[in-house]
UniProtKB/TrEMBL annotation:
This is FAD-dependent oxidoreductase. InterPro entries: 4Fe4S_Fe-S-bd (IPR017896), 4Fe4S_Fe_S_CS (IPR017900), FAD-dep_OxRdtase (IPR006076), FAD/NAD-bd_sf (IPR036188), HdrA-like (IPR039650), MvhD/FlpD (IPR003813). It comes from Desulfatitalea alkaliphila. GO terms for molecular function: 4 iron, 4 sulfur cluster binding; metal ion binding; oxidoreductase activity. Belongs to the HdrA family. Keywords: 4Fe-4S, FAD, Flavoprotein, Iron, Iron-sulfur, Metal-binding, Oxidoreductase. The lineage of its organism: Bacteria, Pseudomonadati, Thermodesulfobacteriota, Desulfobacteria, Desulfobacterales.
């Protein structure tokens, strides 16, 4: 498009009172542009004013007003390039004049009396003008032949619920179940936890009604005794190959490298390039993993509801509890199977089990430890199974020893109803041992509430084995991706299939595949059905978004996708290896093969590329680099004691909103800092840091989402990848004869609005202690 520029400065919300607007207009004049002002840009008159400007031919607008995070729809003008220069939160609210007083006319003539806030605002306008020059209007990537069918993997309560919800919304759904019948784990239940008010009584399992509803729905196709052998392609056009469990077919996905092939002779992990080569060599002779199955079925999105399996307890690990040695010490899953058959009888001799002890923790002395994968559901199951004992025997007794009794939400009503049963005893206690005494079992425990030692005689002891997600050590989906058939970095979530549990439930690390139920976390039937509805809605949203050529999440509605200048590609594979979502495959030479509807638009590939050949229409190496270069760096040529200049590359997901919130609370930070929002710290290319320092800026910091144990990164790996790259920037700084301390990275949560300005100020102080960048003025 031929760009016609317009610079528009709002004078409302204190901007006009705090800043010299005439001087701001002069900044635009210096670039050959004319700036116009309006008293309240977001008001009806201001919007009408902008609409008239657009009608008169302006199609590239630099709006100097409030943060880009507010009035998004107000300042959305289709067909126009918009840059939001943040003068309100980013300048005047975070830098009040009582702390940074404006200059008098006399002071303006003094070269060392600089108006820091005014300089800040002028820089931001320069940066906005520089950016719009380097970006283009995005055009959507639209699939030629999109599928509107939804695949549901798993035929349990969660899968059937998701299928019914999607089918009732008018979508064609296929349910795939590896067993020969629908129902999943619910088929083994004797009773079910309550799902409706008053949530205080057990109910008959509802699984048969679900099965009947699925079979009766004309929009649902059921494939039992079937697994997904291979899933290739991208959202809107997934190509799925089915097979029978254990069957070998031509289009099986490649095998992952065995652990022993992932290390060298000394046991050191191989680098990414060597791993990739070994991976291809290991699978040589198989069908190319990027080849689509010509007989495969097309689907637009996938709901993964593969469920869970009971945790397997190792006898040696739980020998003190008698597990594996005493036949009447069993898991909760074993107990449910006994109860399903009828009256509860001891496995050892078939006699009545009237006294049952339920053990909720391993009993190893830790006050804060339950069995692995145990949680709220395990607590509720213990309550349910204790009720079985009382249902079967009028004189039956159930004892529950727990470290944590978790009954969230309305499940508390069920807990209270169990408390009223005189035959059910509950105490916070640590089970020390289970031994056999004649025909009975003796359970020794310490009551951690009263500090007493207890001994209970029991007919049966039940250990609370947790719910292990089906995705633990099993790819389930079998994806034909270069990064392997499973979800990447599955250990990050302890086997749970989740992309960002805090911010985006249902999402997985594979765009278009949505997790629901126990593969996401352990949950009750009630929670699983609600979860299924959420995943079904996300699958529908994915199909509709792909049909419009926009991102589904987290940059919802984003029309951009990565563009490659392949002539300069060196096939280094960094982009394909570092993409957290497997959006990029590569050919035999290592040349990237984009799958645009898989892309989350985080820009991690752009930050990874050493040749800088990857970019987006409105976010690229040149656009951010030009903003960096537009910042005016005062030198001794301008002032005898020039002010510092610090660049902050801040993540738009947590860091930038945090600073906006700080501004709302009038919590400020150094006016020598210039902030540039980035899509994710993973998108930060080190060339921006090098450019900033080589042009004389005194320091650079990155601020983004938390990673590691307190993981919160919206794009899973972005902050972590940035921290790895920052460690490698030392060589570049050394080549410039600059200190390592001039570059730093900070993690921040969105609610830490008081901490973010403090981190910035402390960094500025450390830079001031180092002194000016020696490149200043060159």
């Amino acid at each position: 498009m031929d760009k016609k520029y317009g610079v528009y400065i709002c004078e409302g919300c204190g901007i006009g009172d705090s800043l010299d607007v005439a001087a701001l207009k002069a900044v635009a004049d210096d670039e050959g542009l004319t700036a116009k002002t309006h008293p309240i840009m977001c008001g009806p008159d201001g919007v009408a004013f902008l609409q008239k400007e657009i009608a008169d031919g302006v199609n590239t607008l630099i709006l100097c007003a409030c943060s880009r995070r507010v009035h998004y729809d107000t300042f959305r003008f289709d067909g126009c390039i918009i840059d939001r220069v943040n003068l309100r939160e980013g300048v005047v609210w975070s830098h009040p004049r009582d702390k940074y007083p404006a200059l008098t006319e006399e002071e303006k003539g003094d070269e060392d009396n600089y108006d820091r806030v005014q300089m800040m605002a002028e820089d931001y306008i320069r940066m906005g003008m520089a950016r719009v020059e380097k970006v283009k209007l995005p055009e959507p990537y639209v699939l030629d032949n999109i599928s509107r069918k939804i695949l549901v993997i798993g035929g349990g309560i969660t899968g059937m619920s998701a299928a019914l919800d999607a089918a009732n919304a008018g979508f064609q759904v296929t349910v795939v179940e590896k067993e020969n019948q629908l129902g999943g784990a619910a088929l083994t239940w004797r009773s079910q936890l309550p799902v409706a008010d008053p949530y205080d009584q057990l109910i008959p399992p509802m699984v048969q009604k679900k099965i009947e509803a699925v079979k009766a729905n004309a929009n649902i196709t059921v494939k039992t005794g079937t697994v997904v052998a291979r899933l290739a392609g991208q959202p809107g056009e997934f190509t799925v190959t089915f097979k029978k469990p254990g069957e070998k077919i031509d289009f099986d996905v490649p095998y992952p490298l065995p652990p022993e092939m992932q290390v060298d002779e000394s046991g050191k992990e191989l680098d990414a390039e060597t791993l990739h080569a070994k991976y291809l060599e290991y699978n040589e002779g198989r069908k190319d993993i990027l080849t689509l199955d010509p007989n495969g079925e097309l689907y637009g999105a996938v709901v993964l509801a593969a469920g869970w399996r009971p945790a397997k307890l190792k006898g040696d690990e739980y020998a003190h509890l008698g597990y594996g040695a005493i036949p009447d010490v069993i898991t909760n899953a074993d107990f449910e199977a006994l109860a399903k058959k009828g009256r509860i009888l001891r496995p050892s001799d078939g006699k009545e089990a009237k006294s049952v002890v339920f053990v909720q923790s391993p009993g190893k002395g830790e006050d804060d430890s339950d069995f692995d994968y145990a949680g709220a559901v395990t607590s509720l199951v213990a309550l349910k199974q204790a009720k079985y004992v009382r249902e079967d025997y009028a004189d039956g007794k159930a004892f529950i020893f727990y470290q944590h009794m978790r009954t969230p939400g309305l499940s508390e009503n069920f807990y209270k109803s169990i408390q009223q049963d005189p035959g059910i005893f509950m105490t916070k206690g640590n089970v020390l041992s289970v031994t056999k005494s004649g025909n009975a079992l003796v359970v020794e425990a310490s009551d951690t509430l009263l500090g007493e030692q207890l001994k209970v005689k029991a007919d049966l002891v039940v250990l609370a084995a947790g719910m292990v997600p089906a995705t633990k050590d099993d790819p389930v989906v079998n994806m034909a991706y270069r990064q392997g058939p499973a979800f990447r970095d599955n250990d990050l979530f302890n086997g749970y299939c989740d992309s960002n549990f805090i911010c985006f439930p249902y999402e997985t690390q594979r765009t278009g595949i949505y997790a629901a139920g126990a593969v996401r976390r352990s949950m009750t039937t009630d929670e699983a059905m609600e979860d299924a509805a959420g995943a079904a809605l996300k699958a529908i949203q994915c199909i509709e978004s792909s049909n419009r050529g926009v991102a589904v999440h987290p940059r919802s509605g984003d029309m951009t996708f990565p563009d490659f200048f392949f002539q300069r590609c060196t096939q280094c594979k960094r982009c394909t290896e570092e993409c957290p979502f497997g959006a990029l495959d590569d050919d035999a030479k290592g040349t990237p093969k984009p799958n645009p509807t898989r892309c989350r638009r985080c820009g991690t590939c752009m930050g990874a590329c050493p040749e800088r050949i990857i970019g987006f229409a409105d976010y690229n190496i040149d656009s951010i680099g030009s903003m960096v270069k537009a910042i005016k760096v005062p030198s001794e040529d301008d002032y005898s004691e020039p002010p510092m200049r610090i660049l902050g590359l801040v993540c738009e997901n947590d860091a930038y909103p945090t600073l906006d919130i700080a501004a709302l609370n009038r919590i400020g930070y150094s006016a020598d800092v210039r902030l540039i929002p980035v899509r994710c710290l993973g998108s930060v290319n080190v060339i921006w840091i090098k450019d900033a320092l080589s042009q004389g800026m005194d320091g650079v910091f990155l601020m983004g989402c938390k990673h590691g144990d307190d993981y919160q990164c919206h794009f899973v790996k972005g902050s972590e990848l940035a921290s790895i790259r920052m460690k490698k920037i030392g060589d570049a700084l050394a080549s410039l004869a600059l200190e390592m301390e001039r570059v730093a990275q900070f993690d921040i949560a969105i609610d830490e609005y008081d901490k973010a300005p403090q981190l910035i100020n402390e960094f500025v102080e450390s830079i001031e202690a180092l002194g000016p960048n020696p490149f200043k003025g060159f």
